[in-house]
């Protein structure tokens, strides 16, 4: 039984999260030939005040960069940018 766990910062719509779960489910099903009923996807949302990189919370980084959107702007999901200290975000 495959289990996929994703941790994101808060700020995405229920529709975006559902689409992410759908796509992850489908990727696991097709790439591993897994039974659909056996696939589990867990999405955890973390406040930007509870996630730090480089000694500063993401909320502090947002404030320093003048970002009011909390780093989430909606749209397509993109991958992790570890070098920039940002988790996977919607752009």
Describe this entry's structure for a reader.
A hairpin with a 2-residue loop joins β3 (52-53) and β4. The protein is 29% helix and 20% strand. The chain has one domain: 2-Layer Sandwich (Macrophage Migration Inhibitory Factor), CATH 3.30.429.10. The chain has helices spanning 14-32, 58-64; strands at 3-9, 40-46, 52-53, 56-57. The chain has 91 residues and is of the alpha+beta class. The protein has a two-stranded parallel sheet. Strands 3-4 form a two-stranded antiparallel sheet. The model is unreliable at 75-91 (pLDDT under 50).
**Can you give the mean pLDDT?**
84
By CATH, the superfamily comes out as Macrophage Migration Inhibitory Factor
What is the terminal-to-terminal distance? Answer: 31 Å
Strand content: 15-25%
CATH topology, which one?
A: Macrophage Migration Inhibitory Factor
Specify the CATH architecture. Answer: 2-Layer Sandwich
Tally of structural domains: 1
Q: Describe the main β-sheet briefly.
A: 2 strands, parallel
Return the CATH class: Alpha Beta
Write the H/E string, N to C: EHEEEH
- The number of helical runs is 2
Radius of gyration using CA atoms only: 15 Å
């Amino acid at each position: 039984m495959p289990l996929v766990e994703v941790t994101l910062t808060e700020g995405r719509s229920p529709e975006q999260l559902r689409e992410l779960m759908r796509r992850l489910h489908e990727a696991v099903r097709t790439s591993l030939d897994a039974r659909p009923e056996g696939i589990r996807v867990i999405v955890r949302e973390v406040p930007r005040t509870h996630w730090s990189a480089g000694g500063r919370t993401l909320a502090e980084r947002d404030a320093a960069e003048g970002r009011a959107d909390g780093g989430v702007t909606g749209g397509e999901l993109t991958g992790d940018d570890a070098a920039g200290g940002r988790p996977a975000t919607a752009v």
